[in-house]
Amino acid sequence: MVYTPYDFNESVRHRTEYIEERLRDGSPVAGISYDGGVLLLTLRRTQRKIFEIYDRLMFAGLGNQSDLEIIRVGAIDFAHQEGYARSPDDVTIQRVVGFAISPGIKRAFGDVLNAPFVVRALFAEMGKTPEEDLFYTLNYDGEFVSLNWAAAVAGTPEAEEQMIRQLVPENAESAPDLQTALHRALRAWAAGRLWVIDAHLEEEGTESLSEERIASFLREQLQDLQVEAAILDRFTKRERKFRLLKEEEIRPVLPEG
Amino acid sequence: MGEYLSANRSGDFMALLRARGLWREPEAFAVRPSQPAVQEAHGTTVIALKYREGVLNVGDRRATAANAIMYDRAEKILPLDDYTLIAIAGSYARAMEIVRYLQHSFKYYARTQLQEMSLEGKLAEVSRALAGNLSMALQGIGLFIPVVSAYDLERGEGRIFFYDGMGARFESVEFGAAGSGSERIRGVFDYILKTKGAFHEMTLEEALRECLLLLDIAADLDSATAGIEKVLPIARAVTAEGILDIPEEQLAQMKESLRR
In this predicted structure, what is the pLDDT of residue A98? Predict the structure, then answer.
């Protein structure tokens, strides 16, 4: 059998369809800068989803759990060997995602004889000020994008757009406080999930993602799922800047009833 | 590229460094009893004392090379993580590298394995790092002695561990010390214990007073120890709330009160 460029295109198309089909149903992750650090938020059943990578780096994603795990440990390995061999200041999100992780993901995607990664991943790096915070989203084909202020990964690119609208409202000015950031991230999660689940939303338009609709969807989802939120704390004196938020810190932003 | 996606799953940071060729193995030369050619900087005196809330560590800030004073502001008391302090005396270069290794090793374990390394595991890791340093130490260079202070969250108390150069670990009941000055003041610890009572019942204020006095005496008796006069010592404590840095003003005040 001869392997032609046509076969390559065809196989990539199949793989893309297969991966995107599987990603659609994933639980989105919202990331946002706030005045005291960086926040990642998602909803989950049992498995933990947001992880510390290094002193000022954290990570979450949707897709195949074991693929996410490979990326997580790979990023931790790279970050720690660099931090030890050089200095913690030399461990940056750009090097971790761009140089250490993304080339391997791309190679796996192009290698038609092996299973590709089924992931959309979100990395966050805390800077000294919210302006210096950075987010990277990483797709299953190795493609990555860097963003300031907020970022999202969800089942489809359209759903991610809806999440960004919730995370960075038009009237938003400076970095929000933690409460506001939590509030926005939770609504962004709901908007991202709703956009994938509800086929009518695309016709009805973005305006139909009203506060009430989001709140009632969240109430429904919170029956089975729980909120997981983690921060990198800009002002802590502790060695570990990463911290999972406690239930009582999240409760005030949940919809009532 | 892409090598990072074939991960080391053991949580063992040394295994990772070895696999990537990044672990600096001490080189084994034939042991020569003569004076080593390299003059290394040495840290001098560090003291760890229990007190009510945990363990207080105080160290002078001098680093010496033979009889020359190399540096006046050496940091010899370093946090390994939020509940562990290490105080180092002896070879500064090797100690700093091992401390950096330990800091990364504890964090690496916690991040990859999604659970904290146990206190026992951390103490064994210190032993392993010291034992790995042995071939250098046998040649008369690179020898350093750590005192590890930890807040044991399970027992709810501060604990002090001291080591020998080969990595043997001992737990101390009340205090620990290392460095050239510590040998001179060994007996003073016991004198305080017998006349003033147990260190672990002291307040931070009282323990700090004893520490500064001990360092002052060490400086009087040991030429390599800087004491408290020229540059304030460094003081850190480990408690149930984590690491506590004793501010300079508090040290300056305490130093003044000792002079009266």
Answer: 96
Digit-coded pLDDT (tens) for B157-193: 999 999 988 889 999 999 999 999 998 999 999 999 9
Residue B58: beta bridge partners? B47, B235
| Sheet arrangement for strand A119-125 | A50-54, A57-63, A119-125, A134-138, A144-147
Backbone angles phi, psi at A11, to 5 degrees: -70, -35
pLDDT digits (tens, 9 = 90+) for B51-101: 999 999 999 999 888 888 888 898 999 999 999 999 999 998 889 999 999
pLDDT for B42: 86
For residues A34 and A181, the answer to whether their CB atoms sit within 8 Å is yes
Q: Are strands B46-51 and B42-43 parallel, antiparallel or unpaired?
A: unpaired
ipTM exceeds 0.95, yes or no = no
Which residue in chain A has the smallest CA separation from B243?
Answer: A238
Q: Cβ–Cβ of A81/B22 closer than 8 Å?
A: yes
Q: Residue B82 and residue A238: Cβ atoms within 8 Å?
A: yes
Amino acid at B10: S
Chain A, 33 to 72: residues with Cβ < 8 Å from chain B are 48, 51-55, 70-71
B9 touches chain A (CB under 8 A): yes
Residues in A closer than 8 angstroms to B79, CB to CB, are: 239
Residue stretches of chain A with pLDDT short of 50 = none
Burial of A156 from C-beta contacts in 10 A (0-12 / 13-18 / 19+): middle
Q: Is B20's CB within 8 Å of A238's CB?
A: no
What is the reported pLDDT for B1? 42
Query: With contacts defined as CB-CB under 8 Å, which chain A residues touch B101?
Result: 84
Which residue numbers of B are catalytic? Answer: 44
pLDDT of residue B2: 53
Mutate to test the interface with A, among B8, B107, B243 (most CBs of A within 10 A): B107
3-state per-residue secondary structure call for chain A: CCCCHHHHHHHHHHHHHHHHHHHCCCCCEEEEEECCEEEEEEEECCCCCEEEEECCEEEEEEECHHHHHHHHHHHHHHHHHHHHHCCHHHCCHHHHHHHHHHHHHHHHHHCCCCCCCCEEEEEEECCCCHHHCEEEEECCCCCEEEECCEEEECCCHHHHHHHHHHHCCCCCCCCCCHHHHHHHHHHHHHHHHHHHHCCCHHHHCHHHCCHHHHHHHHHHHCCCCEEEEEEEECCCCCCCCEEECCHHHHHHHCCCC
What confidence category does residue B35 fall into, taking pLDDT thresholds of 50, 70 and 90? low
